[in-house]
Amino acid sequence: MSVSLYEDRPLELRRRHFINSYPPFNHARPVEGEEMYRPGELLLYLHIPFCPTICTYCFYKKFGNPTRAAVDIYLQYLKREIELFAAAEASARGPRPLKTIYMGGGTPTVLTAEQFVDLMGAVRTHFDCDGLEEFCCEIMPHAPTADADKLAALKELGVTRISFGVESFDEDLLRRHNRPCSRELYDHTYEMVRDQQFANVNVDMMTGLAGATWDTWTSDVQSLLEWSPPSTTIYKTEVYYNTTMFTGMRAGKNTPALMTDEEEIRHIRYAHDALMRGGYIADTGASLIRGPQYTHMHFRSHFEGCDLKGLGLSAHSSFRGTMHQNASELPAYYAMLDAGRLPIKRSHPLSARDRISQAMVYGLKYLAINRARFIERFGMDMTVLYGPVIKRLVDSGALLLDEEYLRVAPDYYIFVDDVCRQFYLPEYQDMLLPRVERNDVTVSIERRRQATASA
Ligand code: SF4
After folding, report:
1. pTM for the whole structure
2. Distance CA 283, CA 268 (A)
3. Strand-pair category, 29-30 with 344-349
4. Is any ligand 1 atom within 6 A of the Cβ of residue 58?
5. How far is the CA of 221 from the centre of ligand 1 (A)?
6. Residue among 50, 62, 110, 166 whose CB has most ligand 1 atoms within 8 A, to mutate
7. How far apart are CA 302 and CA 297, in angstroms?
8. H, E, C per residue of the chain
């Protein structure tokens, strides 16, 4: 008799709900102390929650147009957190080497070159960075956030991977989403990035922006191919309830022209086909790279189970078998650090079921799971636990199973999050971030209004 933890659920190919954290953080509960450490390499994430302007679709924790003083205060606290965490780590297990650093946000390049040097000085003082395999920094070319001097400073500080937020090359679409960037500025910034010869450069793009058409998208893909970056990641625009786009829609100020899920699928399929023909290979369902050496080491290592410590406002960690999240409001974040505590606000210890299910979800995000490695980690073949769901997905053509690997079928790369969600534990199935239904924007907003009114 086969055993399964999973309900039999139909596979819906809608490209909804991009997965970047599993199990969902909604499940975490408040935490008092800190739980940490096991030996091995460590991945570090540093959150810089400031941006020159706020993009209408953005659901990250960030503040617009910060003063230099506000950034300075934040950096003082971030350095205090680095110090506290390093001390806790050293007293528990002794220092362990950093494998990767990821500086994200927000827009890290709102920092001046001096602020970058100061921050990285603190990291290097407290952590062994000698064996660093990747140091990634996000950039966004609002003048003057990423100029030549700052890019040179990043290179000097050891940055090896730049992640460049482009989203679209179409100036009208950028303006509609409150991104005051021109094509000329993008080209100029990309040229400066190339001049610095970073080992890896990723370009972020977005499908389904409000007002995007087949013409704007095919033109975006052609521009991307002309740049030909080593790596590109293409996200689907989703209108979450904590975005300025949604606030505007609810207030009746604007109803952005959102394409349907079906149109967006046509767009992403076109991009994947064009990029594959242009020499790219799929690294994940969302990322395409020019060769295996351009994989995103930080995320790959995290998804393979390496400990990740996130530092900064609202940062997420997955550490010593527990998921943590830092305080997400500045006063609480500062107060906990003033009290000499790590600013952790909630955590979720991973159960054995969580870990096994997570290995399926994260493994398939990278498109293949090695069956022998799965047996090494969990003591049983994945088909023992997931027999029925794997069989159903293999029968439908979404997965391929052989002696060595369980793989996502190439035609389903663009639906990888839908496929991964089939391996969610039942208790997490409905924990999805509230967002506007593209195919029926009016009903979606009305539902939200009613929910707010009755709350
Ligand atoms: S630049 Fe990035 S973090 Fe900042 S508002 Fe835009 S999407 Fe959000």
Report:
1. 0.89
2. 15
3. antiparallel
4. yes
5. 21
6. 62
7. 8
8. CCCCCCCCCCCCCCCCCCCCCCCCHHHCEECCCCCCCCCCCEEEEEEECEECCCCCCCCCCCEECCCHHHHHHHHHHHHHHHHHHHHHHHHHHCCCCEEEEEEEECCHHHCCHHHHHHHHHHHHHHCCCCCCCEEEEEECCCCCCCCHHHHHHHHHCCCCEEEEEEECCCHHHHHHCCCCCCHHHHHHHHHHHHHHCCCEEEEEEEECCCCCCHHHHHHHHHHHHHHCCCEEEEEECCCECCCHHHHHHHCCCCCCCCCCHHHHHHHHHHHHHHHHHCCCEECCCCEEECCHHHCCHHHHHHHCCCEEEEECCCCEEEECCEEEEECCCHHHHHHHHHCCCCCEEEEEECCHHHHHHHHHHHHHHCCEEEHHHHHHHHCCCHHHHHHHHHHHHHHCCCEEECCCEEEECHHHHHHHHHHHHHHCCHHHCCCCCCECCHHHHHHHHHHHHHHHHHC
- In angstroms, the CA 44 to CA 354 distance is 23
- For residues 310 and 106, the answer to whether their CB atoms sit within 8 Å is no
Residues 399/391, Cβ–Cβ less than 8 Å: no
For ligand 1, say whether the CB of 62 is within 6 Å of any of its atoms: yes
Residue 454, pLDDT above cutoff 70 = no
Burial pattern 137-147, b for ≥16 Cβ within 10 A else e, equals bbbbbbeebbb
What pLDDT is attached to residue 29? 64
- Tens digits of per-residue pLDDT, 422-432? 999 988 987 77
Closest residue by Cα to residue 125 from 92, 87, 162: 87
Question: Are 279 and 230 within 8 A, CB to CB?
Answer: no
Which pLDDT score is estimated for 440? 64
Instruction: Tell me whether the omega of the peptide bond preceding residue 434 falls within 30 degrees of 0, making it cis.
Output: no
φ and ψ at residue 57, rounded to 5 degrees: -95, 5
Pairing of strands 344-349, 322-326: antiparallel
How far apart are the C-alpha atoms of 164 and 149, rounded to whole Å?
A: 17
Instruction: Return the percentage of the chain with pLDDT > 90, whole number.
Output: 73
Both tokens of 29, joined, read 């509960």
Query: Ligand 1 centre and the CA of 56: distance in Å?
Result: 9
Is the minimum distance from the CB of 425 to ligand 1 under 6 angstroms?
no
Any atom of ligand 1 within 6 Å of the Cβ of 146: no
